[in-house]
Fold:
Amino acid sequence: MSTVLFDTPGPLARARHRILTLIAAVAALVVLGLVIWKLALEGEFEAALWEDLAQPNIWRAIWNGLVATALAAVVGIILSIGFGALMAVARLSDHAAVRFPARVVVEFFRAVPLLLLIVFVFFATGLGAYWSVVIALMLYNGSVLAEVFRAGVQAVPRGQSEAALAVGMRKNQIMRLVLLPQAVTIMLPAIISQCVIVLKDVALGLIVSYRELVAEAQGIAEFVNHAIVPLSIVAVIFIVVNYSISKAAVYVERRLAQRGHSSVQKPRT
Amino acid sequence: MDTLIQEFEQVRRGFTLTLWLLLFSGVLATVLGTILASFRVSPIASLRAIGTSYVNVFRNTPLVLVLALAISVIPTLGFSDLGFSIGIRGFTHFFTVAMLGLSLYTAAFVCEALRSGVNSVAAGQAEAARSVGMNFTQSLRLVVLPQAFAAVIPPLASIFIALTKNTSVVAIFGVPEAGFVMRKLSNQYTSDLWPIFIGIAFGYVAIVAVISTIASLLERRLAVAR
Structure:
């Protein structure tokens, strides 16, 4: 393996790397072990705690939190895609009167912390915690996605819209039937990665007491009087789910990169 | 509008704390992220594994959860008072813990940006440097790093912008930065909701604008002709 930083190692370097690998692995395990040992000394893993955690209502609470997180995330991402597509189209408009306000909206919502948005929507609309989270997610992630879609539309080869124009399509037909479908496909990996961000951001609903997964974990932590184990369980759930989604994004990206190489034949010259 | 003027002192103090958080965690995340990135591109397998697991753990956990864990783990490990002061400015234990949590979280993103920056430099560049007789330090200092830095500035800038916005998350745990002040004022003066929101939001917009201006200036200075 020759990279920009080092040459392909020879036998001597490989032996040295093996020894260093061992040393680094042992050092990492020792540090991790010391942390766990100290936490155990402080009684964070004592038997009584596990008995408390084995109660069914604990797992019901985690399940409820999971459902609440998923519900806000799914609705949030669907609304964001709609809002993002709308804003992307507005930003690509031929009319400055449409382009400029859309630009202001997108730039503003991208620069404002999501937490502030949630608090604002909560107090301004009085729609309750769930809708504050969902609407704020829509405004923020929709603005992020608007930029993604815009880049996607601009990445569609010019010939596509010219061909559509040549067969007599109107501007909105070109956007709706030709450009957006292709842009969304090009940008599918980025949209899937955005799902990870949305899923994590639902946890900000804590500020308006939305009972999602992290809030449930904190409730459990109070109930069993120990925070580290319940929070870690929820962290593991998040890591597994988000890691799978990221892997799915990579898979889709690879599939899309392959597409066109096998099925579409290049014109002969 | 009157509320913002009347409570200006609180808002100012909130943003001062936001900027301190940004400064400390920005520096710490960059240092930690650089170390992790060097792990991820090193020839030593276990260091690569450490870097990869760190990134996967911290990138996939919500920041709120990272902060909540930091708040309970750090005192349990025996660090129950991490407050410190610089000159006459004192920082509370909660500030330090929140700052550490933010740094740990952001370091994972910094690491990924730096790694892709190093990987974006073509292997032929270093091979060419070696073949004209440069040693490891020379090829790194004169050929690889300048190109990697130029490639890394835009993603690093978006990470610092994200960090700016993420500092508001510590409001959930009661650190009185700008986001916390906004929630407090919104609760207190419900009739003045719009000016409070717009006013504080523009504080963040200003910080973000400064970061992106610096980034685009640097990008232009460091642009490498390829």
Remarks:
- The mean pLDDT of chain A is 88.
